Amino acid sequence: MAAAGEAQDAVDWEVLQILALVGDKWSLLVIGKLRDGPQRFGELQRGVRGISQRMLTLTLRKLERDGLVNRTVQAAVPPRVDYRLTVLGESLLGPVLSLVQWAVDHRDEIVEHRSHHDRP
Amino acid sequence: MAAAGEAQDAVDWEVLQILALVGDKWSLLVIGKLRDGPQRFGELQRGVRGISQRMLTLTLRKLERDGLVNRTVQAAVPPRVDYRLTVLGESLLGPVLSLVQWAVDHRDEIVEHRSHHDRP
DNA sequence: CTGGATCCTTATGGATACTG
DNA sequence: CAGTATCCATAAGGATCCAG
């Protein structure tokens, strides 16, 4: 009977998918910024503190590939490129925000425990 | 008026805290395994597919330091060490599972979009 | 059984310069 | 403006050996 093991593997797969989507430093911050609505490349870079041009590009490419973000180019001079959350991307907002809310609710507890652990 | 910027920074801080807690490959899997109840080091290593001894140790140390996991040693030969989720750790389960549920609900959509993006 | 120490390879990401 | 390309430093992580 390998049903239990297979079920566990399935769960693991989902978890790893989540991490592949938003488990890096920038994806969640970019998605969070895009909550404000469609934005241009430059707006995003100014909005997400500390992100480099390179990482913004890589992050947007990944989010686009995974279907969370939509990229629209308007051929003009100077060029204008807008990024917006897709329906799929917006559907991710709920679960993510509940996690953020958890962090808000427990930040003091975490910080407290961490310092207490360093100096018992 | 810098209130908006400060609020955004606060949100960013929470997001980065989440990533520091569970944004790595193994933390979520270990937490997921600990849902089954308190377990020994060896059980965890067998339960979390592919984790090395080193990474299990490091992950558990981090989770312990952040107050998500409790470590109890029973002096004996051979030594026995049990790990269990703390109350704080269990409170994280809800938000995390809603995220997992999201991945379950949209896995087909994600896979489909990904392959479609590779071959347009 | 639990887990620390070391070596070594790869992945990540910042800085910078250049292009349509 | 919106990238692409390159170089380089650091971090992450696997394999292995050793010890209480």
Structural class of chain A: mainly alpha
Described by strand count, sense and barrel closure, the largest sheet of chain A is: 3 strands, antiparallel
Which assembly state applies to the chains in this document? homodimer
Number of E-state strands of chain A: 3
Secondary structure: helix percent of chain A: 55-70%
Largest interface: A-B, 45 and 45 residues
The rounded Rg of chain A comes to: 18 Å
| Mean pLDDT across all amino acids of chain A | 92
Pfam family, one (chains A, B): HxlR
InterPro entries (chains A, B): HTH_HxlR, WH-like_DNA-bd_sf, WH_DNA-bd_sf
Organism (chains A, B): Saccharopolyspora thermophila
Protein name (chains A, B): Helix-turn-helix domain-containing protein
Q: How would you characterize this protein structure?
A:
Two copies of one chain form a homodimer. Chain A is mainly alpha-helical and 120 residues long. Helices cover 67% and strands 12% of the residues of chain A. Chain A has five helices and three strands; from the N terminus they run ααβααββα. Chain A has helices at residues 3-22, 27-34, 41-47, 53-65, 87-118, and strands at 39-40, 69-74, 80-85. The first copy, chain A, has a three-stranded antiparallel sheet. In chain A, strand 2 and strand 3 form a beta hairpin. The longest helix of chain A is centred in the C-terminal third of the chain and has 32 residues, at 87-118. The mean pLDDT of chain A is 92.
